[in-house]
Amino acid sequence: MAEKLKNTKLKKNIFALIILLGVCFLVFKLLPDFFSIGAYSPIEPIAIHSNGKGFTGSEACAECHLDIYNTHIETAHFKSSAKANLKTVKGSFKDHENIFNLNDSIGFKMEVRNDVLYQDAFLKSNNAHISSSRFDIVIGSGTKGQSYLKWQDSSLYQLQVTYFTPSNSWVNSPGYPSDQVATDRPIFGRCLECHMTYAKSTERFYKRNSYEKSQMVYGIDCERCHGPSNDHVNFHRKNPLDTVAMHVVKHGDLTRQQNLDACALCHSGVRARRSKSPFSFIAGDSLNQFSTPDYTEKDLKNLDVHGNQYGLLSASKCFKKSDVLNCTTCHNPHENQRDDHIAFNKKCQSCHDSGIGSHRICSATEESKKNSDNNCIQCHMPLTFSKGMKIETSQGTLKAVEVRTHLIGIYVDSLSQ
Ligand code: HEC
Ligand code: HEC
Ligand code: HEC
Ligand code: HEC
Ligand code: HEC
Ligand code: HEC
Ligand code: HEC
C-alpha cells in the first residue's frame, strides 16, 4: 500500500515537472519574439532592382546615419530629380515672369491650376490656346538649369520649356526648334540613369520610354552609390549590437579604379556600345564591362568640360603621377561643397605644399598669387565654356554654359585673370 502511494506521488511529481519544463520551454521560446514585436519590424522596400535587391530610400538611413543624411539632402545629387511642385521647380509662375516668348508669334505661359503645374503654348496675336503640358518630373537641381518631363500614360517625354539659372528665366530646351511648338521628346533610360536612383522599364531592355510609375526612386540618393540597401537596413535594425556593416557597398574595400568607375558612370560623358541595360551597373562593378568611352587617349585634352570630369582628370599630371588621387580626394560625396574654394585649395596644398618627391610647389610669382588670394583653382582649373551645353536665351542667341575644367594644368592666361 505504502509502496503504491509512493509510486503515484512520484508519477505526479514527474508529470508536474514535465509540465513545468514544457511551460518554461514555451516561455523561453516565445517570449523574445513577443517582446521584440514592438522593437523590430522590417521596412518594406520602395522599389526592387532587377537584381532582386530592394531600395529603401534615404529617410530610413537617417535612423543610424543622421549626420550624413542631413548634409546629403542639401547636395545637387539628391536634388537632381524630383516630382514637380512649386518647391522643386525653380522657374517662376508669377505674372509676367511666367512667360517665355518662343518667337514673334508663339509664346508659352507657366500656370498653376488646381495645384498642378502646366506650360501652355499660345498664339501671341489673339491669345489662342495651342497646347498644354503638365510638369510631372524635374531633372536638375537648378545649379545651372532644370528640364521637365511629363507622363503620358506610362511614357515619359521632355517638355519644350526649360529653366536656365544664370539668366533666371525660361528658355527653349537645348535642341528644340524655335520656329514651332515641338513634339515632346521621348525620354529613354540613359537620361534617367544619370539623374535618378532607379527607374524600372516596363520592358526588359529599356527599349521604349515607358516606365513603372511605382518603381521610380528620385534623386541621386544613397543607394545609387551604395547599392540597394533594404537588406542592410533590416539586418542592422534587427541586430542593433552588430557594428560590422552588412549588405551594403563599402567604398573603402574597392580598388582605385572601382571607386573611379562609381563616379565615372555619370561623369565620363555619353559612353558607347552598352551591352547591358541602364541601371544594371552597381558601385563596385567594372564600368568597361557595361560601356566603353566614346573617346580615345588622344582626345582626352579636348573633351568637353561638361559631363566628362573623369576623362579630363585622367589626362592631368596630378592624376597620372599619383597612385591614390581619385574623385573623393577632393570631393566629399555627402556634402554640398559648391564654391567652398578654401576647402578645395587645402586638398591641393595637402599634396603640393609638402614639395616632397614629385609634389612640386607652385612656381608662379608671389605677387600674382597674392592678387588672386592664392586660389589654386582659379588658375589651374579655370572656368571654361562648354562646347556641347549651349542654351538659347533669346531667339537665335546661344549662350555656352561655364563649367570648371578637370584638366588640372598650367594655363598661360591664368595670370591675367
Ligand atoms: C539600424 C541602423 C542602420 C540603418 C537604418 C542603416 N545603417 Fe548603414 N550602417 C549601420 C551600421 C551599424 C554600420 C557599421 C558601422 C558604421 O560604419 O557606421 C553601417 C555602415 C554603413 C556603411 C559603411 C560601410 C563601410 O564600412 O564602408 C554604408 C555605406 C551604409 N551603412 C549605408 C547605409 C544606407 C545607404 C542606409 C539606408 C538605405 C543605411 N546604411 C541604413 C547601421 C545602419
Ligand atoms: C547616377 C549618376 C551619378 C553618379 C554615380 C555620380 N554623379 Fe555626380 N552628378 C551627377 C549629376 C546628374 C550631377 C548634376 C546634378 C544636378 O545639379 O542636378 C552631378 C553633380 C556632381 C557634382 C557637382 C555638385 C554641385 O554642387 O553642383 C560633383 C562634385 C559630383 N557630381 C561628384 C561626384 C562624385 C565624386 C561621384 C562618385 C563618388 C559622383 N558624382 C557620382 C550624376 C552622378
Ligand atoms: C555620390 C555617391 C554617394 C552618395 C549619393 C552617398 N554616398 Fe556614402 N559614400 C560614398 C563614397 C565614395 C564613400 C567613401 C568615402 C571616402 O572614400 O572618403 C562613402 C562612404 C559612406 C559611409 C562610410 C564612411 C563615412 O563617411 O562614414 C557611410 C556610412 C555612407 N557613405 C552612408 C551614406 C548614406 C547614408 C548616404 C545617403 C544619405 C550616402 N552615403 C550617399 C558615396 C556616396
Ligand atoms: C552620362 C550621364 C548623363 C546623361 C545621360 C544625362 N545627363 Fe544631365 N547631367 C549630367 C551631369 C554629370 C551633369 C552636371 C555636371 C556637368 O555639367 O558636368 C548634368 C547636368 C544636367 C542639367 C543641369 C543640372 C543643374 O542643376 O545644373 C540638366 C537640366 C540635365 N543634366 C538634364 C538632362 C536630361 C534631360 C537628360 C536626358 C535627356 C540628361 N541630362 C542626360 C549627366 C548626364
Ligand atoms: C594626391 C596628390 C595631389 C593632389 C591632391 C593634387 N595634386 Fe597636383 N600634382 C600631383 C602630382 C604628383 C603632380 C605631378 C608632378 C610632376 O610633374 O612630377 C601634380 C602636378 C600638378 C601641376 C603641374 C601640371 C603640369 O601640367 O605641369 C599643377 C599645376 C597642379 N598639380 C595643381 C594642382 C591643384 C590646383 C590641385 C588642387 C585642385 C592639385 N594639384 C591637387 C599631385 C597632386
Ligand atoms: C584635385 C581636386 C579634384 C578632383 C580630384 C576632382 N575634382 Fe571635381 N571639382 C574640383 C573643384 C575645385 C571643383 C569646383 C568646385 C566649385 O567651384 O564649387 C570641382 C567641381 C566638380 C563638378 C562641378 C562642375 C561644375 O562646374 O559644375 C563636378 C561634376 C565634379 N567636380 C566631379 C568630379 C568627378 C566625377 C571627379 C573624379 C573623376 C572629380 N570631380 C575629381 C576638384 C576636384
Ligand atoms: C595667379 C595664378 C596662380 C595661383 C593662384 C596658383 N598658381 Fe600654381 N602656377 C601658376 C603658374 C602661371 C604656374 C607656372 C609658372 C611657371 O612655369 O613659370 C604655376 C605652377 C604650378 C605648379 C607646377 C610647378 C612646377 O615647377 O612645375 C604647381 C604644382 C602649382 N602651380 C600648384 C599650385 C597650387 C597648389 C596652388 C594653390 C595653393 C597654386 N598653384 C596657385 C599660377 C598660379
From TrEMBL:
**Know the name of this protein?**
Multiheme c-type cytochrome
Q: Which Gene3D superfamilies match?
A: Flavocytochrome C3, Chain A (1.10.1130.10)
User: TM spans, by residue?
Assistant: 12-31
Q: From which organism does this entry originate?
A: Flavivirga amylovorans
UniProt keywords, alphabetically:
Membrane, Signal, Transmembrane, Transmembrane helix
PANTHER family with a match to the protein in the record: C-TYPE POLYHEME CYTOCHROME OMCC, DISSIMILATORY SULFITE REDUCTASE SIRA
What positions does the domain Cytochrome c-552/4 occupy? 189-227
